[in-house]
Amino acid sequence: MSETVKEQYSTSDKLNIRISLHSKYSTNKQGFGNWIFSNYRIQEGMKVLELGCGTGDMWRGNGDTVKRCGELVLSDFSEGMLETAKGNLKDFPEITYRCIDIQDIPYPDKSFDVVIANMMLYHVPDLAKGLSEVARVLKDSGTFYCATYGENGMMEKVELMFEDFPDSGTRNYTFTLQNGQGTLEKHFREVLKLQYEDALEVTDIEDMIDYIYSLPSWSDIQDMPRDGIREILTRNMQDGVLRLPKDYGMFVAKGPKRSK
Q1: How far apart are alpha carbons 193 and 70 in whole angstroms?
Q2: Nearest-CA neighbor of 85 among 97, 70, 69, 72?
Q3: What are the strands, taking DSSP E only, across 3-64?
Q4: What is the pLDDT of residues 134-190, one digit of tens each?
Q5: Helices 13-25 and 205-214 meet at what angle, rounded to 10?
Q6: Cα separations (Å) of 165 from 26, 157, 207, 222?
Q7: Structure pTM?
Q8: Inside any domain, residue 217
């Protein structure tokens, strides 16, 4: 992972700011995390590995699924994130926590029934190597779940508002809803894309400004005075609401292809 990404995810503070914005202002009240989890098919005794678990918050409130697992390993490349996850999930002593880089997964071939990697594949320096590792540790009948963003969402809309700033268009499109299927099909025989329908309706512009400052890019925008950012965002509000599209979803991949 790049040093910028490592710094951004060394603790959960900035991630929590972004989670909070979506929680407060999303029009789909199911919640993206709940929707992701609703698509998991984890049966009794399955061995499950999550890569990039972050705060582990998605598992909180899903104790039945935790207990159903024969083994549940939550991993992240950030020790700080793992410590937060351990605190959030302290009621589940059966969970194993490990610091893991997806590019070098320290488990034997065909170890897991399910591998999960949500909202993180676009950060992987050598994505082909990372996905090869996922395919390697999955059983032949295993499933890989990976959520990501698309190329027509809130970030693109905000970038248009700040189009005069050079860094405002530097989005990471390494792995998106638009190109992820082709990438996954190099490593899996069956890939299904699922779309999550949602939008943001932000009424307190200060929360949106905090969100912008929490991002690992947009340095030119972040160098602006807070008042300047507020002015541009407020100019784009209608009837006291800043409306932003969301483009999120997930892939469900099966049938890992084996290296010859």
Answers
A1: 27
A2: 97
A3: 47-50
A4: 999 999 999 999 999 999 999 889 988 987 765 544 568 999 999 999 999 999 999
A5: 150
A6: 27, 14, 21, 10
A7: 0.87
A8: no
Q: How far apart are CA 207 and CA 216, in angstroms?
A: 17
Residue 13 tokens, joined: 């503070």
Two tokens, residue 120: 């993180």
Calpha distance 45→67 (Å, rounded): 9
Query: What are the backbone dihedrals phi and psi of residue 55, each rounded to the nearest 5 degrees, phi first?
Result: -80, -5
In-domain check, residue 35: yes
Q: 216 in a domain, yes or no?
A: no
CA-to-CA distance for 28 and 163, rounded, in angstroms? 28
CA–CA gap between residue 57 and residue 87 (Å, rounded): 10
**Parent domain of 28:** 3-151+172-199+247-255
222 or 216: which leads in pLDDT: 222
A 10 A CB-CB count for 207 gives 15
Backbone torsions φ then ψ of 251, nearest 5 degrees: -110, 145
Segment 7-51, tens digit of pLDDT:
545 556 888 898 899 999 999 999 999 999 999 999 999 999 999
What are the residues facing 96 on neighbouring strands?
Answer: 73
What's the CA gap between 174 and 231, in Å, rounded?
A: 32
In a domain, 219, yes or no: no
The CATH number covering residue 117 comes to: 3.40.50.150
As given in the structure block, the two tokens for residue 102 are 């997806």
Q: Which residues pair with 71 in a beta bridge?
A: 47
